[in-house]
Design brief:
Length: 403
C-alpha cells in the first residue's frame, strides 16, 4: 500500500499524458491529408519521428538514470508543447510540419518511457508485473477517453484547434512533475562518456534475452505507420466513414489495455515469456484480418482483437525487460536501448510503407505487417526463452521438433 501511494501521482500523470496525446494523434494524418499532403508523403514525414526516437532513446534513458526522471519528463513536455504550436500555426510547410512530428513523436515516447522507469524504480520483483500493469492500465484509460473527446471536438472545431487542448494538458503535467518524489536517489553528474550510443546498443545486443526482444520489437513496431497513419486514412478513404470514426477506432484499440494489471499479475505468477509470444501472435493475426475488412463493424471487431493482444504484449514485454535491467542496474539504459532497436522497425516501415502505398492498396500493407510479425516471433522465441543457468529450447521450437 505504501508503494501504491508513492506511485499514485506517476500513475495519474501517465493517464493524463495519454489523454492529452490521444485527443489529437488519431487526427494528425487526416489533418495533413486535408492540407494536401499525399499518403506517401505523410508516411515519409513520420519516418523522421521514428529515427528521432532511435537516436535519442538510449541517450535519454541514460540521462534519466544520471540526472533524474523529473528533469527529463519536463524537458519532454516542453518539446511536446513546441510541436503543438508548430502544427497549429505552420503545418502547411512540409519542413515545419515534419519538425513538429519529430518533436511530438520523440517527446511523447521519452516522457512515457521515463514515467515507466520512475514506476519501476519503486517496486520489488514480486510485485513488478502487477504495478507495471496498473501503470499501463491507467495510462490506457486516458487513451480510451481521449479519442472520444477528440472525435466530439472535431465534429464542430477545425482539427488544428483541437491541438490547443493538448497544450493545456501538457502545462498541467509540468506542474504535477514538481511533486514527483524521487526520494533519496543519488543521481550522478553526467559525463560525456556516459552517452555512448554505440556502446549501449552493443551491450543490449550482447544479452541473448534482450536480443530476442530487440528482434521482436523491431517487427512489432514495423506496424506503427499502419496504426497511426494508414488505418485512419483507410477508414476515411476506403471505408468512406465520417472523421469521428477515426477517434472511435482509436478508442477500440485501447479497450483491453485498461486491464493490463491482470496481465501484470499473470506475469508475476507465470512469467512474462509466454505472454510476450501469445500477445505478439494475436496482434499478428489481427493484421492479417484487416486485409479482408469491408465494413466499419468488421473493423471494430478486429481492432478489439488487436487491443487484447497488444495489451498482453505491452505489459509482459516491459516486465520482462525491467527485470533484466534491474539485474544489470541499468533500467533506464535497458528500456532506452530497446526503444532504439524497436523504433528502427518503425523508421524502416514509414519509408517502405510510403513507397508501397503508391503501388498497392492500404489493406495490402496490413498483410505485410502480419507476415513480418509471424517471422519475427519464430526467430525471437528461442532468445526470449533462453536461460543461461539452464539452456533449454523454447516451447515453440520444442513443438516444431516434436512434429
Amino acid at each position: 500500500m505504501k508503494t501504491f501511494r508513492k506511485l499514485l501521482l506517476a500513475f495519474l500523470m501517465g493517464g493524463i499524458l495519454s489523454f492529452g496525446i490521444s485527443i489529437f494523434v488519431p487526427f494528425i494524418a487526416p489533418y495533413l491529408s486535408s492540407l494536401g499532403f499525399k499518403n506517401s508523403t505523410i508516411s515519409y514525414m513520420g519516418s523522421f519521428g521514428a529515427i528521432g526516437i532511435v537516436a535519442i532513446s538510449p541517450v535519454m534513458g541514460t540521462a534519466s538514470d544520471r540526472i533524474g526522471r523529473r528533469k527529463v519528463i519536463i524537458m519532454g513536455l516542453l518539446l511536446e508543447i513546441m510541436s503543438m504550436l508548430l502544427l497549429i500555426n505552420f503545418a502547411r510547410s512540409i519542413i515545419l510540419a515534419t519538425t513538429a512530428m519529430v518533436l511530438q513523436i520523440t517527446a511523447v515516447f521519452v516522457i512515457a518511457l521515463t514515467l515507466l522507469s520512475y514506476v519501476e524504480d519503486n517496486m520489488d520483483k514480486k510485485t513488478r508485473g502487477f504495478f507495471t500493469g496498473i501503470n499501463e492500465s491507467i495510462y490506457s484509460i486516458g487513451g480510451l477517453i481521449g479519442p472520444l473527446v477528440g472525435a466530439f471536438l472535431v465534429s464542430f472545431l477545425p482539427i488544428n484547434q483541437v491541438f490547443k487542448y493538448s497544450i493545456f494538458v501538457d502545462l498541467v503535467l509540468i506542474a504535477l512533475s514538481f511533486f514527483l518524489d524521487e526520494g533519496d536517489s543519488l543521481y550522478k553528474k553526467p559525463k560525456i562518456g556516459d552517452f555512448n550510443f554505440l556502446r549501449e546498443i552493443k551491450e543490449f545486443w550482447s544479452n541473448k534475452n534482450l536480443k530476442g526482444m530487440g528482434i521482436l520489437g523491431i517487427f512489432m513496431h514495423f506496424a506503427t505507420p499502419g496504426l497511426f497513419i494508414f488505418l485512419p486514412l483507410f477508414i476515411i478513404q476506403d471505408l468512406k466513414a465520417p472523421l469521428k470514426y477515426v477517434g472511435i477506432m482509436a478508442t477500440m484499440a485501447t479497450v483491453f489495455s485498461v486491464f493490463q494489471f491482470i496481465h501484470g499479475w499473470l506475469c508475476d505468477k507465470k512469467g512474462s515469456e509466454k505472454f510476450i509470444i501469445l500477445g505478439a501472435s494475436i496482434t499478428a493475426t489481427s493484421m492479417f484480418l484487416i486485409y479482408f475488412v469491408h465494413s466499419i463493424s468488421a473493423l471494430v471487431l478486429i481492432i478489439l482483437i488487436y487491443s487484447f493482444g497488444a495489451s498482453m504484449w505491452n505489459t509482459s514485454a516491459w516486465c520482462y525487460m525491467s527485470t533484466i535491467g534491474e539485474k544489470m542496474k541499468k533500467e533506464g539504459q535497458t528500456t532506452g536501448s530497446y526503444a532504439a532497436f524497436a523504433r528502427t522497425g518503425a523508421f524502416a516501415s514509414f519509408l517502405i510503407s510510403g513507397a508501397l502505398v503508391s503501388v498497392i492498396e492500404i489493406r495490402g500493407l496490413f498483410l505485410i505487417y502480419g507476415t513480418l510479425k509471424v517471422m519475427a516471433i519464430i526467430v525471437s522465441t528461442k532468445y526470449i526463452f533462453f536461460d543461461e543457468r539452464k539452456p533449454v529450447r523454447s516451447p515453440l521450437f520444442e513443438t516444431q521438433n516434436a512434429n
